[in-house]
Amino acid sequence: MTTQRTAADRISLLQGTLDVLILKTLVFGPRHGQGIARSIQRQSEEVFFVDHGSLYLALQRLEDKRFISAKWGVSENNRKARYYSLTAKGREHLAEKTTEWQRLTRAMELILGGKRAPDVEEA
Amino acid sequence: MFRRRRGAEDFADEIQAHLALEADELEAEGLSPEEAHRRARVAFGNVVAAQESFQLKSRVFWFDNLLRDLRFALRQLQKSPGFAATVIATLALGIGANTTVFSIVDAVLLRPLPYHQPQRLAEIQSSDVGQVYESNDVSYPDFFDWRAQNHSFEQLVSYHDTSYTLTGVERAVHLDGEVVSAGLLPLLGVQPQVGRGFSAADEKQGARVVLISHALWVSQFGSEPSIVGRTVHLSGDAFTVIGVMPNSFRFPVTAPKNSFWTTLAIDNEPHNPGTANRGMHFLTVIGRLRPGVSVAQADSDMKAIAKRLAREHPNSNAKHPSARVQGELAVLLGDTRTLLLVVLGAVGMVLLVACGNIANLQLARMRGREREIAMRAALGAARARIVRQLMTESLVLGITGGLAGCLLALVSTPLVLRILPPGVPRAGDASVNLAVLGFALGISLLCGLVFGTVPALIASRTNLVEALQAGGRAQIGGRDWLRSAVIVGQVALGIMLTSGAGLLLTSFLKLTHANEGFNPDHLVTYRFETPDSRYEHTRPEFYRQYFQKLRGLPGVEAASGSVFPPMGGDEADLSFENPEQPVPEGQRPSAIVDIVAPEFFRTMQIPFLAGRDFSDADTEQSPQVMIVSEAFARKFFPGENPLGKKLRPGASSDARGPQWRTIVGVVGDVRRYATDRDMTPIQYLPASQLSRWCCLTTVARTAMDTLSLEPEAAKLVASMDSDIPVTDVHTMDDLIGLQLTQPRFAMVLLATFAGLALALTLVGLYGVMVYSVSRRTQEIGVRLALGASRGAVMQMVLCQAVVLVGVGIAIGIAATMASASVLRSMLYGTGARNPIVLALVCVVVALTGLLAAYLPSLRASSIQPMQALRNE
Questions:
Q1: Contact yes or no for A81 and B17 at CB 8 A
Q2: Which chain A residue is nearest to residue B24, measuring alpha carbons?
Q3: Residues sharing a CB contact under 8 Å with residue B719, sequence separation 6 or more, in sequence order
Q4: Using omega within 30 degrees of 0 as the cis cutoff, is the peptide bond preceding B252 cis?
Q5: Are B18 and A38 in contact (CB < 8 Å)?
Q6: pLDDT in tens, B285-306
Q7: Which of A12, A116, B766, B866 measures 20 to 30 Å from B816, CA to CA?
């Protein structure tokens, strides 16, 4: 019935990943908090479970750092919601972080996948 | 700056929106509305926790916390009103006393003089080398030479007091004023409000110009600017008014009532000019240091000049071969400085004792709250939060106490100013001002911080497990010696303050019971001028008639006059020639002189030891005579009969110069100042043979209420000369009281502070003992259960107090001995280390301590062993 998996299958988010995920979600346009949470869960194929307390804290943090901006708006089903959108500074930060993550996952993949990687030290 | 970007409500709205959107979506997936809402809520997790963490991350959360801490602190303090009241009252007393005293110290000691660049003003005194008693005043010729020869001062100005009668106005008035040299206003950097200042020409012989005070301008001349250039009559002389000084102008600052300033041309009389007499020392000299010249440099400059002058004029200057330069403020303060510093020290000690009490109260309270704090820590409160919480409580107490102290200061400052000695310069300007309030607030904040931080830090280190288990019997031993040390310190301070107060009290009692050498009961004194312009030659006759009439008034038992009456505050030193011990002119002996009318000794009830009184038969033409005091006879004629001996005191009335005088009488000694330590030798000369000496102060002994003579006396004087106002009417008791104000002030304040300190120590010791007993309830219960007698338990508790008080007393005695010299200059008739006073003080303090320990020991001995054991 529900599309959510059971708690045992979920992986809690690594420290610092939530910020990047939020920023990535906002690339496609403004969203409210609930939409962001849903989107992250859905896109990770329900692997990531977003703790909502942490989510709003992260949103507050990103807003403070001026990576995102927020204003109140109305949702498609006519509910008042606070919409977050990416700023130029946020976009820049996201690009930076994305590269970092890609290098990290590649390195992890190389090691965990059992292949020898001559250039691991450099990474 | 701390504007909150987003309110908590806004955040709550957002969460609500989230929950609604999630529920919508779940509903769309086919759930029932209720189930959808439930799931949305479950999925979100703890809403309150989310809101709380939002609060914590919010930029102004510390402010919210502060408000919360404040509310919590107030609630906590409400729960223990006794504790809060004690702390606030203690602080209020400490801070109130401090603020009051600081207000006065600020006005008198700290505030600069009201002149341009006052730090460059210095006073120059003539001085001897090593000899104890010689006037520091300067003579005119010396002043002129100093002014011309020095390289250290931009300006040098001489001044001395004078007084005149202003006539030609509605009613003749007596005015005090100053005779100054022309450079005064540029030296002070002050301009007249109307008119001009003095010019060099105003110093020339015959010049009669005067600057008047703003107050005189308003009261006598209706604030008319046309006063400038007008002629006024002062004691019969015509003076031209050249200007009016600003309202704020005071010179010297010790004489705020001065109404006029004139130039030294007054002293430049055609015959026998004071400005040419090098032996007449009666001037004060101040100067403005050149930029970059220090007081020490000026001092050596002036010393060199004085030394040269002493070589050039050995006859007049041998006794003043040196000079001394001091900062003007330092000179002005004189021994007032010691007095104020002693009082400031005393009040500081009271504050220390008060702080000690607060520290102890806080420590005891923390101890009582150990479990509460441990509980809060166990429930997850961060240590920093607990410390801040406790400090907020302390600050609330500190600030409340500080405000109460400020109120107390506002009330008590005028009271203290009223008992302040009249000689304290600038005290009239003292008030509780912003600087002082800042000072008080600073102290209270500091108290709050210091005495909040230490216990809070200790409390936050509480070991959770230990504190919570076993009914909270965990002990931290270190705190007990801290509390004991505080008590010992308080007792020691109490000893120092009380012994200081005891010494001042002893000294004051000695002063008030001292034999003055005359009988001050029912004596009244008053003054009036007999101006030279009318009485230069007729003075003796005028006075003879006047005293005859005065003695005839009803209620007057005896009456006479004296130029320098005892307790009047004026005196003159006169050198004399003794043919039996010829010495060079510059080294002649000198003694205090008084010039009196007949019957002076009978009026004052000064005993006649030998010989006769002056009489109206002693005239300028008859053989010249004098009377000496017992101390004079002892000092200058040891083992001899002074009667019939001849001396030549350096006082003259006409062109003949000083005359040889026969000693015709010996009288008992009198105390010239109420605070004199010794009876000084005095030479008495008859006013009837020195007609140019002005003016006699009347002394009259009455049978009735002393001051009721005033209207009759004023009428009598007016009937003889309507242009002579009677001034300065005082009873002798008032004059003596006036001279004792400084010792009385010191005694009253120190006694108050000592009492305060003792009371606070009592409270502190009581608190410590009560606390200690309550903590040892179980131990005492065990002792009693095992057969200890109640007496033994009481003794045990008292012993603890005795040890604390004993150590405190020992330290206090040592500190008192060490600091005794501070008070020496303020003591009369007692040494600074008076064993009787110290012993009495120790007894008082010890009794106070035992009293504080008695009730707690009683409580300890009445503990029920079974109950005590069960409770734990």
A1: yes
A2: A77
A3: none
A4: yes
A5: no
A6: 999 999 999 999 999 999 999 9
A7: B766
- Closest by alpha carbon to B684, among B706, B663, B707, B711? B663
Q: Which of helix, strand or coil describes residue B523?
A: strand
Handedness of CA B138, B141, B147, B151 (dihedral sign): negative
Distance, in Å, from the CA atom of B752 to the CA atom of B6, rounded to the nearest integer, reads 56
Chain A residues whose CB is inside 8 A of the B22 CB are 34, 38
Pair of tokens at residue B533? 């312009």
Partner residue opposite B57 with nearest CB, options A38, A60, A82: A60
Residue B767 or B673, more confident:
B673
Contact: A33, B44; criterion CB under 8 Å: no
Nearest CB partner across the interface for A52, out of B6, B17, B50: B50
Report how far residue B572's alpha carbon sits from residue B570's, in angstroms, rounded to the nearest whole number: 7
CA distance A53 to B49: 7
Inter-chain residue contact B53 with A53, CB threshold 8 Å? yes
Report percent pLDDT > 90 for chain B: 26
Q: What is the DSSP string of B82-95?
A: HHHHHHHHHHHHHH
For residues B526 and B731, give the distance between their C-alpha atoms in angstroms, rounded to a whole number: 9
B790 close to B864: Cβ distance less than 8 angstroms: no
Neighbours of B814 (CB within 10 A): 13
The ipTM estimated for the assembled molecules is: 0.78
Contact by Cβ (8 Å): B319, B129: no
The count of CB pairs under 8 A between chains A and B is 59
- Alpha-carbon distance of B148 to B157, in angstroms, equals 12
Cis previous bond, B695, omega within 30:
yes
Nearest to A51 among B14, B22, B45 (CB): B45
Chain A nearest-CA distance from B382, in A, is: 20
B397 Cα to chain A: minimum distance (Å): 37
Residue that is written with structure tokens 């000893």 in the block: B495
Partner-chain residue, chosen from B13, B24, B49, that has the shortest CB–CB distance to A53: B49
For B27, the closest chain A residue by CA position comes to: A2
**The two three-digit tokens of residue B33, written as one number:** 């509305």
CB distance B54–A56 less than 8 Å? yes
Nearest to A53 among B5, B17, B46 (CB): B46
Ordered by where they begin, the domains of chain A are 9-112 (1.10.10.10)
Buried b (16+ CB within 10 A) or exposed e, B426-437: bbeebebeeebb
User: Which of B148, B211, B158, B155 lies closest to B188, judged by CA?
Assistant: B155
Residues from A in contact with B at Cβ < 8 Å: 1-3, 32-35, 37-38, 51-53, 56-57, 60-61, 64, 75, 77, 79-82
Collect all residues of chain B within an 8 Å Cβ-Cβ radius of residue A77: 21, 24
Boundaries of every domain in chain B:
1-59, 129-320, 336-512+741-871, 529-724
Half-sphere exposure of A9 (CA within 13 A, CB side): 9
B6-25 mean pLDDT: 81
pLDDT tens-digit profile of B806-849?
999 999 999 888 888 888 877 877 777 888 888 988 998 888 88
DSSP string covering B568-621: SS--EEEEEE-TTS---GGG--EEEEEEE-TTHHHHHTPPEEEE----TT--SS
How do strand B661-667 and strand B608-611 relate by DSSP bridges? Answer: antiparallel
Interface test with A, best of B6, B11, B18 (most A CBs within 10 A): B18
Question: Which residue among A3, A60, A75 sits closest to B21, beta carbon to beta carbon?
Answer: A75
Task: Decide the pairing of beta strands A80-86 and B237-244.
Answer: unpaired
Q: Looking at residue B483, what is its pLDDT?
A: 75
Residue B223: how many other CB atoms lie within 10 Å: 11
